[in-house]
Specification:
By secondary structure, the protein is an alpha+beta fold. The protein has 1 helix and 5 strands, in the order ββββαβ. A 5-stranded antiparallel sheet has the order 4-3-2-1-5, with helices on one face. The relative contact order is 0.24.
Amino acid sequence: MITQPYHLYVERKDAKKNMARFYAMSIEPNLFGEACLTRRWGRIGTSGQVKTHQFEKEQDAVVLFLDLLRQKRRRGYRTARSVL
């Protein structure tokens, strides 16, 4: 059982390089109660690619989640600003 929600959506934009990328992650339980880390990434405006990792322990999924978050922050990904 997942003790708290884990969701992340970040973007990296650079007009000079014609770069507009997104990266999204979430940890959710599967039908068997295992923690699943689902990652989606690609160009903003597309459905992108998807990869899912399954873990017996939620803690292992959280460790990978935080590691990937640190990697993305180092590469320049930032939280998207909503426009209302």
